[in-house]
Each structure stands twice: as C-alpha cells, then as structure tokens.
Amino acid sequence: MDNPYAIYVNCDGAMDYQKGNPGGVGFFVRFPESVALEPIGISVGTYLHGNIERLEIEALIQAMKKTKDIFFEHLEMLKNVNTIIFITDRLGLSDKAKTSPYKIKEWKSNGWKNHEDKPIKNHKLLGELDRERRKLASATKSQVRIEWRRRKFNKKADKLAKAGKGAGTQKFKLWNAGEKIGRRKLEGDEVNYRLILPNDEYHVNIFRKDPVQDKWEVWAEICSGDSQGQKLKIYAEDILAKELNRGNEFKIRIKNVFNFHVEIFGSLQKKRKVVKESNSKKKSKEEKDAPQNSE
C-alpha cells in the first residue's frame, strides 16, 4: 500500500546497442491521492556514448532535480508530503546496494574505493546522485529513498525512457573515456566466484573493457569446461589490460578471488579462436538469413 504522504517517482533508462549507443531517460511522478495533481511523465534525451547503468543513474539524478522544481511549484498543495520515493528496476541501484547514502559516504572517505580497495564504478555519477538527494531532502524536509521494483511495475517509466532516446532535441554525453564493448559469442550469467580458486586456469574470450579510475574492469566469457558461457569479471592494471584486447581468446590463471571479481597473473597465453556462437544466437541468425516464402 502506498504511503499517503509520499510522492512516488518511477525512473528508467533505455539504450540502443548501435553506433553511439543513443539512449534516453524517463520518469513518472505520482502524487498522494489527497493531492489534486495529475501524474507527470517526463522524457529526457538523447544521450550518447553511455551504458545502461549510467543511464539508470542519470534517470534518478534528473528525476530528483525535476521533483524539487515540482515541489516548489505546488508548495501549498504538497506541504504534508514527508517522503519521496524513487523507484528503479535496476537491482544494484537501490538503497540496499550502490545508492545507499552510508555506502557512498564510506566509499568517498576511502577515495571512492570499497573495502577490498577496488575502485567504485561510475563514482562521479554516484557522487552527483548523492548531492542531488541531499539537496532534495533539505529543500523539501522529506525523507528521500531509492527502492527497487520489478520491471513489470516500471512500464510507464520504461516507455518514457524509450521516447527520450529518440527525442534528439539535445545531445548529452555519458561517455566513459576508453570504454570498449564488443559482441558476446556465448550466453550465460555471471560465474559464481565462490567456486573459483587461486591458480585455476580458464580459456576465455574478452568482450568488454571499461576504465574504472586507475584500473580496468575487463569482462570475459569462459569458452570451455563446466562453466562454459559464463561471464567473468577481471580487474587489471593498465599494462595487463592493454594485452587483453577485445575479440581475442586467452588462457588465464587466477591470482586472487574476491566476492565479485578476480585478479589474474600477468603471464597470458593467447589461444586460437575456437569458441562458437551459442545455439540460440546461431539459430536466430539462420532464421534471419533464410529466404522468406511469398504467398
């Protein structure tokens, strides 16, 4: 049941996986039933050179800015509001995860690094989000929360975000310098890092590289064995990351294992490209290439 003294703001980001990665953000503002205000839907775009997590964070930032403006436009009508809840369908961006004010404060005091001394991804946007949250809470004298909901409960914001990516009225850049994204050849979820041990060896295909402060986040997919197709996140120094080029396959050896990533030894063995596309991707491609029967 909704809080009768709360404003609810559903937020979402959307992106096309093509040249420039055009994207948009959208949010849908709902007021308490006791307030005679119609819901407000807003689309913002077009964003260029982003990724979906940055767009989702940007959606929250823009929604907070606009909600503050709306609050003061209707100050008398909203004087009893004591809570503003922002809703995201990205699990990692709720207050139980990355957007927790307590976590952000801890990361900032540690130079934007976590307890494993690893750099926090998208820290600049997270810092801006934290500032906008504090501004909104102070200006409205309300508690400001970010909560997760399943995607099926966020359809209006999703529709607005998709409209934003095609708006073309402005061009905003969410580019992370150096980021390189390639196509996956296999399908699978992220590996269970608790099953990985130091000195384990894997044959992997590199499909993504993303600079994170003074390190690189390198994504690979395992090409053989029981974990074939699963994704593996590697944190690497600049020298090693330069060797791990997208579209190449390597035999790697695990050096250290953490909760959500690994580090590897610098001695790499380049492999011949033997990994094949997954059956579902291959089938989709065959169906696309097949001649169409005319009636």
Secondary-structure element order, N to C: EEEHEHHEHEEEEEHEEEH
What value does the average pLDDT take?
Answer: 87
Largest β sheet strand count, sense and barrel closure? 7 strands, antiparallel
How would you sum up the global shape?
A: elongated
The number of helical segments is 6
Say what the CATH topology of the largest domain is: Nucleotidyltransferase, domain 5
Instruction: Give the fraction of residues assigned to helices.
Output: 25-40%
CATH superfamily assignment of the largest domain? Ribonuclease H-like superfamily/Ribonuclease H
Low-confidence stretches: 280-295
Number of strands: 13
Under the CATH scheme, the architecture of the largest domain is: 2-Layer Sandwich
Give an account of the 3D structure.
With 295 residues, this protein is an alpha+beta fold. The chain has two domains: 6-173, Nucleotidyltransferase, domain 5, CATH 3.30.420.10; 180-273, OB fold (Dihydrolipoamide Acetyltransferase, E2P) (Beta Barrel), CATH 2.40.50.120. It is built from six helices and 13 strands. The chain has helices at residues 52-73, 101-109, 123-140, 155-165, 238-243, 279-289, and strands spanning 6-15, 23-30, 40-48, 83-88, 143-148, 172-173, 180-181, 201-212, 215-222, 231-236, 249-257, 262-264, 269-271. Strands 7, 8, 9, 10, 11, 12 and 13 form a seven-stranded antiparallel sheet that branches. A six-stranded mixed sheet has the order 5-4-1-2-3-6. It is elongated. The N and C termini lie far apart (53 Å).
